[in-house]
């Protein structure tokens, strides 16, 4: 199984998570600033990682390079998404970026895997919710970093 993890990160938090996930999956890990359309297409599992900035915005590099993802043919691609956010400071837009990426890849024909339960989180709204679940892995390194390793481990079990 060929796996590619593509992430965007300003402070390094999402990069560190992407690296951890990449090691566990024996995956190629790539910053969105370096990604080409083929990087999204040439794998059996594509993992996307993005922090949510401000009140529900994509990280700046993802915002600038979203077109590269939108050019990709994802019709036969399995995609998993993870995001970092702060559920305490931004409870109304917790991991919204995950929802934005989800909508983008679904529109390109991808099959999204790795939905996760909202139990254990304390937020009031998220664009990443569908049918009562997050459409990917939600991580809050600011307030629940002690839960990250367990959440990653459980999430990866769904992907492989």
Q: What is the rounded distance between the termini?
A: 9 Å
Strand content: 15-25%
Shape descriptor: globular
Overall radius of gyration: 14 Å
* Biggest sheet overview: 7 strands, mixed
Mean pLDDT: 96
> Which structural class matches the secondary elements?
alpha/beta
Count of helical regions: 5
What share of residues is helical? 25-40%
Which series of helices and strands comes N to C?
EHEHEEHEHEEEEEH
pLDDT below 50 for ≥5 consecutive residues: which ranges? none
Q: Find the count of extended strands (DSSP E, 2+ residues).
A: 10
In short:
The chain is of the alpha/beta class. It is built from five helices and ten strands; from the N terminus they run βαβαββαβαβββββα.
What does this structure look like?
There is one protein chain. This protein has 160 residues and is of the alpha/beta class. It has 5 helices and 10 strands, in the order βαβαββαβαβββββα. It has helices at 13-25, 37-41, 60-71, 96-107, 148-159, and strands at residues 3-7, 28-31, 45-53, 57-58, 78-84, 111-113, 116-117, 129-130, 133-134, 137-139. The strands form 2 sheets. Strands 1, 2, 3, 4, 5, 6 and 10 form a 7-stranded mixed beta sheet that branches. Strands 7-9-8 form a 3-stranded antiparallel beta sheet, with no helix packed on it. β5 (78-84), α4 (96-107) and β6 (111-113) form a beta-alpha-beta unit. It starts with a strand and ends with a helix.
Task: List key phrases describing it.
160 residues; 5 helices; globular; seven-stranded mixed β-sheet; alpha/beta; single chain
